[in-house]
Amino acid sequence: MDPADVAKVMRQETSEWIKSAQNPLVAPVNQHLFGGWEGNWIGYNVAHDVSLPHAKGPQLGFFMYPVAEDSEGRFDSHEPDSFKYQITAQELKV
User: Fold this and answer.
1) φ and ψ at 60, to 5 degrees?
2) What does DSSP assign to residue 17?
3) Phi and psi (nearest 5°) for 50?
4) Buried/exposed 5-39: b ≥16 CB within 10 Å, e otherwise
């Protein structure tokens, strides 16, 4: 399954962050999507228990969202008030 589809429901269905896949709004979506695979998707990565270089936090079950830590520990990448990032790109002339 694409965990992002379940995470979207957890973030967008209510004004409060839903933190549990067992929540009544999320459970049916999670149950329907978990274990499924869309025919138009290609699996590029099957890694699990990912250890990030120089990380003090635990291994990641999967690597989907940006991860950051400081001396106090790992930030919650799903908490927009405390974890912000910006992605930029530029064309390289070769």
Assistant:
1) -95, 140
2) P
3) -80, 125
4) ebbebbeeeeeeebeebeeeebeebbeebeeeeee
- The CA-based angle 8-20-49, given to 5 degrees, is 85
The whole-angstrom separation of Cα 21 and Cα 35 is 14
Per-residue confidence in pLDDT tens, the chain, 94 aa: 566 777 777 777 677 778 888 888 888 888 887 776 666 666 666 777 888 889 988 998 877 778 899 988 899 888 888 888 888 989 999 8
Confidence (pTM) = 0.43
H helices of 13-82, in order, are: 27-33
